[in-house]
Amino acid sequence: MAVSDHVDFAAFMEGVRTRNPGQTEFIQAVQEVAEDIYEFIDDKEQYHTAQILRRMAEPDRVVSFRVCWEDDTHRIRVQRGWRVQSNNAIGPYKGGIRFHPNVTESILKFLAFEQTFKNSLTGLPMGGAKGGADFDPKGKSDAEVMRFCQSYMTELYRHIGPDTDVPAGDIGVGSREIGYMFGQYKRITNRWEGVLTGKGREYGGSELRPEATGYGAVYFLQDMLNHKNNSIEGKTVVISGSGNVATHAAEQILKQGGKVLTLSDSGGFVHDPEGFTQEKIDWVKDHKIKRRGRMSEYANEFKGATYHEGLRPWGVPCDLAMPCATQNELNEVEAKTLVSNGVIAVSEGANMPTTLEGVHVFHDARIMYGPGKAANAGGVAVSGLEMSQNAERVSWNHERLGTMLTELMKGIHSQCVEYGDQGDGYVDYAKGANIAGFKKVADAMLAYGVV
Ligand code: NDP
Does 247 lie in the same domain as 131? Predict the structure, then answer.
């Protein structure tokens, strides 16, 4: 019989900081969750005795490996690759792969930790993981990207499998990279199986997967507004990013009758006061995603738009905001600016784009705030459905998947309301998402005993 070990919040966080020196993003992600969970488990001794939160804040394993490849000038390059398998209590590990020069173990541990809660919220049997490498696909030829992807998979393949760990894309990993990695996995193992999601439609990819994260984040925004008898119709929206999530979020905002004022990339943001039309969004998709161009060129293409180098879009007055680029891209000062400009709701397409201080600003101002782990869960949800289709050797149509995605997002919204309703009409969606995501994983861990 285990002895009760009720450590208070301050001591718990001190332990996390001591065990993970310098891993600021990971510590931030754990703190954001632990603030809510501590309140929830205060009178639930079983979770303290079993040290559930401490176990969840320790990844099941972190695999780190060398990735060597040869560039087009025949120079040998050496990169570092990782796979962080955070928790598989409720299903095989699942989470994206990120290729970006600033990828670190801390960033992947935070993303894998968040993924565990997000995947739990979808209601599908998926655990949490994340992988990546400090490789920059920008400026590389297709042949270089292929050689890198093949080298990365040559190590990764031994750690993954359709019932073990199923990676997907993320920043810097789109359909091109997934194709190269899937090809190499198939070649090494001689098995065609659903080991990656986000695949091309020709070889087992699901309809709606490319759109799912951005569309889902807009459905979540709509669900939050509906809960207050409001809607996206006629509202102005500021969006950051110009990748997969941002462009599909912009597209769905248009479908819901909203007006998108901005998109951005790491160089700066574009403000288009006329609003982004479908034609303009298609141009961005083609230019940024297919031709790998920069947002700075948008203003030359479309009259009336302005480009703001080195700046983020949060100073543009709007009704709704959707950070869809990267972590910590919206700080306390920018959150205060959004609030003073009258923003009524924020839905996060990216993972942890708002700093902890920024989140506190939104909560203090009673703004509807949909955290990434709830709002952007549509992508992994459709990835889960891609796994089911691959396992059954079937493919479902767009309409069927569209209905499933809408229902999944509604389900996530209801769980957030169930655990996050403050009793005075305000819903703390972050608290709701954290508690609902935690409970399912924690109860499964309790059932397994000390493992
Ligand atoms: P993409 O690579 O398609 O696009 C990323 C966008 O963010 C680009 O516009 C990029 O600009 C910008 N960006 C990247 N780093 C920075 C930075 N440091 N500062 C400012 N802008 C930056 O990625 P996704 O759209 O797939 O992912 C965006 C976010 O959504 C990430 O947080 C990801 O984890 C999250 N997410 C993605 C899911 C998916 O299904 N794809 C699922 C759930 C969450 P540039 O071109 O200049 O690099």
Answer: no
Within a domain: residue 437?
A: no
Q: Which residues contact 365 (CB under 8 A, 6 or more apart)?
A: 339
Residues 201 and 279 in one domain: no
Which atom, in ligand 1's list, is nearest to the CA of 379?
A: 40
Number of domains in the chain: 3
Q: What is the 352 CA–ligand 1 centroid distance (Å)?
A: 12
Residue 272 covered by a domain: yes
Q: Whose CA is nearest to atom 2 of ligand 1?
A: 171
The pLDDT, as a whole number, for residue 289 is 78
Q: How confident is the model at residue 408 (pLDDT cuts 50, 70, 90)?
A: very high
Q: Are residues 140 and 245 in the same domain?
A: no
C-alpha of residue 243 to centroid of ligand 1, in Å:
6
Q: How far is the CA of 263 from the centre of ligand 1 (A)?
A: 12
Does some domain include residue 415?
no
Instruction: Tell me which residues have their CB closer than 6 angstroms to ligand 1.
Output: 169-172, 213, 241-246, 265-267, 324-326, 329, 349-351, 376, 379
**Same structural domain, 146 and 130:** yes
Given the residues 94, 109, 130, 235, select the one marked as catalytic. 130
Final residue belonging to a domain, choices 344, 375, 406: 375
- SS3 (DSSP) at 111: helix
31-69 pLDDT tens trace: 999 999 999 999 999 999 999 999 999 999 999 999 999
**Secondary structure element (H or E) that encloses residue 167, with its range:** strand 165-168
Domain of 282 in residue numbering reads as 210-375
Distance CA 388, CA 400 (A): 14
Would residue 130 show up in a list of annotated catalytic residues for this protein?
A: yes
Q: Does residue 6 carry a pLDDT above 90?
A: no
Collect contacts of 331-340 with beta carbons under 8 A, ≥24 apart.
331/355, 331/357, 331/358, 332/357, 332/358, 332/360, 332/361, 334/358, 335/359, 335/361, 335/362, 336/361, 338/238, 338/314, 338/367, 339/365, 339/367
Instruction: Look up the CATH number of the domain holding residue 66.
Output: 3.40.50.10860
CA of 170 to the centre of ligand 1 (A): 7
Do 219 and 364 share a structural domain? yes
Shortest-distance atom of ligand 1 to CA 263:
9
Is the domain of 93 the same as that of 51?
no
Cα-to-chain-centroid distance, residue 67: 25
What is the structure's pLDDT at 339? 98
Judgement on whether residues 49 and 98 belong to the same structural domain of the protein: no
Query: What's residue 3's pLDDT?
Result: 65
Q: What is the mean pLDDT of residues 258-285?
A: 98
